[in-house]
Amino acid sequence: MNSRNISLRLIPQNLFNSAEWFSDLPRDLFMGALIALTLIPQSIAFSIIAGVDPKVGLYTSFCIILVTSVLGGRSVMVSAATGAMALVMTPLVKAHGFDYLLATTILTGIFQILWGFLKLARQMRFVSRAVMAGFDNALAIMIFRAQFPHFTGENAKVTIWLMLAGGLAIIYGLPRLTRRMPGLSVIPSPLIAIALITCIAIGLGVTVPTVGDIGSLPQSFPQLLFPQVPLTLETLAIITPYALALSFIGLLESFLAATTIDEYTDTWSDRHQEAKGQGIANIVTGLLGGMAGCGMIGLSTVNVHMGSRTRLSTFSAGFFLLLFVFLLGDWVSRIPMGVLVAVMVMVAASTFNWPSVKRLRRITPSETGVTITTIAATLLTNNLAIGVLCGVVANALLFAQSLAGLLRVETEVEIETEARIYRVSGQLFFLSADRFLDSFNFQDSLKQVIIDLSHTNIWDQSAVTRIHQLLHRFEQQGIEVELVGLTPSNASILTSVRVKARGERNQG
User: Fold this and answer.
1) Which of 11, 429, 468, 482 lies 20 to 30 angstroms, CA to CA, from 88?
2) Alpha carbons 198 and 58: distance in angstroms, whole number
3) pLDDT digits (tens, 9 = 90+) for 161-181
4) Cβ atoms 227, 100 nearer than 8 A
5) Could you give the CA distance from residue 147 to residue 308 in angstroms, rounded to a whole number?
6) Edge-to-edge order in the sheet of strand 480-484
7) Pairing mode, strands 448-458 and 480-484
8) How many other C-beta atoms can be found within 10 angstroms of the C-beta atom of residue 153?
9) pLDDT category, 275, cuts 50, 70, 90?
10) Contact 350, 240 (CB under 8 A)
């Protein structure tokens, strides 16, 4: 089946293949439960970042992971509430409220379905690794920065700092102690940190801010909820910029997660289907009281590294997630914010692209500049989409500058005809056009000039204009000019230039 037919489908081609669901039932169900346990603290934390009730993040993760496990283009990829999306929604919730968040989530899904049909994934090749490193690092910094209010200012209490330090000690120290204890090492250390510090806080009767103080937790399955916003152009003007940013950021992170799984499993993802699946998931989530989400690189990597290969691992995670919340709801509401901040600091640290720092000595200055530009633009605007856009533009400009520097003009005199030959190589466009013109001697005593363009490409009107000027200035000096070696593409762009061409001339 060709790619056109694939792009018109709303469901994956292999959805009803039993191997996609039941090839390793026990392992996938175990991983589903493990993913669900890991998602609980992260979903709550991302809700707090976005400024909504904890139940919103839990509903989001429940809905998105279920829908994408069925309709997504990449099996075993975990999609849920994420920090990248929550950070974009924070100013929207502060300025306009929760209902506008729901409307924005639905519009985000509509955009993503559209991008799936338009095959936007093909354009992701313009996002270089340098831009992605900047995206990861800026996201990590923003997640870390969002935790400041919870342990500074009025919340700068000794107990909060002790919980933060204790949580980090357990999160990073426990895996070192449990490497030789397989039964215990499979339990995520953040979950152990939360359980242990929560029990200590309750046992000692310590009064600290808790998850229950932030908002309510789910008491039932999500209900159909239509956003209570005016259906006006003004509303559309408010939510569209946020929805566009969320749609691009969500697909960017989802495609990165899919690429990670592809490289590990040596399989192929249908990114166009993934875009549609993410879009449908966000529409469903918005109608059920959740916020926009996307693929999670970290949890997807854990899932595939632990041996999951089917859609059942993520599908079961959705049901386990809500089941655990219903069973442990009272305990979840009593989780101290201090230990939850420790979890988010861990998320920020794991999101940061540390290898990009190690590579600084080995990569070109232009790549370093692109990464720094992406980070700076993101932090200055508090908008990951703008940061990525600035990074892509900076990357394109620096690449064009490097390409312009490759233009060479060499000259020699042909004794037999007493003509000066200029051999041009490289790319001739707006950035290299001035350098091209400056390479010629218009005061030459010879009466003929031959310009060999067989090893160059002419790209734009700036290059054509400089060639016009070149010919005109030589003619003013009474020097005959001849262009040779014109390729068909160069000849077509120079149709407006009246020159003699000696295509049969052998230039050696």
Assistant:
1) 11
2) 19
3) 899 899 999 988 888 877 766
4) yes
5) 32
6) 408-414, 419-428, 448-458, 480-484, 500-501
7) parallel
8) 8
9) very high
10) no
